[in-house]
Amino acid sequence: MTAAAPTTADVWMIVAIAFLFVVLVFLSVAEMSLSRMSKPKAQALADTGQRGGSSLVGLVSRPERWVNPLLLSVNVAQTIQATLTGVVAGRLFGAPGVAIGVVLNVVVFFVFAEAVPKTYAVQHTDRAALGTARLTSVLVGFAPLRLVSRSLIGLTNVIVKGKGLEQGPFVGEQEFLGIVEAAAEEEIIEHEERELIESIIEFGDTVVREIMIPRPDVVAVSSNVSIDAALDVAFEHGYSRMPVTRETETDDDVMGIAYAKDLMRAVRAGNGGEPVESLVRKAVVVPENKPVSKLMRDMQREHFHMALVADEYGSIAGLVTLEDCLEELVGEIVDEHDDEDPDVRQLGNGESLVDAGMSVSDFNDHFDARLPDEDWDTVGGFVFGTLEHVPEPGESLEHDGWRFTVVELEGRRIRSVKLSPVIESGQD
C-alpha cells in the first residue's frame, strides 16, 4: 500500500486535526477536574491566591453554566476531528484509509485525548482545575455557544415530555449514592459520613407513618385522672409530654397533650388532686403520609416537639416526636430513661427473635432481605397481611429463604416473630 502525496488541503486538514487534538485534551482535563472539584476546595484555592482561583470558584459555584457548553464543545470537536481524519486517511491511502481512520480515532484519540487527560485530572485535580479554569470561563461565556447549548436542551425538553433538563443532565440519586460508596471505600470520607449521607438521601422519601409510635404503643393518661397520677406516669416512663385521652361511646378520643413541667408546677402549687384535663394543651395533628422532612421544618418553625398522627379517616393512628425524626438521620438515640430492647435478638443456630414492630426497611438492611415495603411498614404487618388472618402462636410462613414464626400475640397484634433460615432439601 502506497500513500498518495498530501496536497495543500491535506496539510491544512492535518494541522486542523492536530489543533483539535489539543482542544480535546484540554476539554477532557477541564471536564474531569471541574466535576471533581468541590466549592469549599475551590474557595480555599482562591483564598491562597492561586492563579485561576477566582475563575474556578465562579465555575464550581454555578455548574449549570459550564456543563452543557463544555459537553457540546467536546461533541463538536470530536465530530469534526473524526470527519477530517476519515477524509484525510481516505485521500492518502484510498480504500484502506477508512480502516486507518477508525484506528486513529479509536486508539489514538481515545487513549491520548480522552483516557490519559482524564486520568491526569483525577490524579492532579487541583492543578488541572486551576490550569483550565480561566480559559474554560472564556469558552463557556461565548454567547453563541451558550445560545446553541440552551436551544439543544430546549429541544430535548420538547421531545422528552415532563420537567426536562433545564440545566442539563446531572447525577441521579442512585449514581450519587454509588459515588459516596466509592468515596468511603477509597477512604476519602469516613464510613460514618457515608452512613449519614445515605440517611439524608433516604430521609427525603420517608413519611410520618414509617417512624411514628403506633397507637397501641402510645403511653397516654385519661382526662379524669389526677395531676398527681399523671405525673407518676410521666416519671415512670421518663416522658416530658403525654397524650391525654377522653373516653367516648366508640373510642378513646385524644383531646390534647399534657406537659410534665405543667404537671410539676401544679403539684408544687398544691393542685395535684385536680383532674389532668385542666392542664391539657392543644395537640398538633399531622397526616400519616406527611414527609418527615417537612414535619421537622414545621417543628422548627412552630416550636413543637410532638404531634399526633391521623390516618386518612381522621382517626389517631399514632404519635411522632422530634426525637423520632432525628433518629431517622443519626440512628437510635438512647438516653438514661430508655430501656435498651433491641429489635433483633440472636437465638443461636442462625435463628433470631425479631420485634414485630421493626420496620421493613430496617429488617431488610439488617438481614440483607427483600421484604416488600410498599404495602407494609412493619414485620408484624407483613406477616399479618401475608397470612390474611389473625395468626395463632406457632403459625409460620416462608418468604425469600426465611421462615417467619409467630411467637407472641397481644390481642390481634403480633408482638414478636422468630426468624429462621429455610434449609433447602438435599443441602448440607
Write structural notes for this entry.
The protein is of the alpha+beta class and 428 residues long. The protein has 4 domains: 8-159, no CATH class; 173-202; 208-330, Roll (CBS-domain), CATH 3.10.580.10; 344-421, Uridine Diphospho-n-acetylenolpyruvylglucosamine Reductase, domain 3, CATH 3.30.465. It has 16 helices and 12 strands. The chain has helices spanning 8-36, 39-47, 53-61, 67-93, 97-123, 125-140, 143-159, 173-185, 191-203, 208-211, 227-237, 260-268, 292-302, 322-330, 360-367, 379-387, and strands at residues 213-214, 221-222, 241-247, 252-259, 284-287, 306-310, 316-321, 344-348, 351-355, 396-399, 402-410, 413-421. The strands form 3 sheets. Strands 8-9-12-11-10 form a 5-stranded antiparallel sheet, with helices on one face. Strands 1-7-6-5 form a 4-stranded mixed sheet. α11 (227-237) links the parallel β2 and β3. The radius of gyration is 32 Å and the shape is elongated.
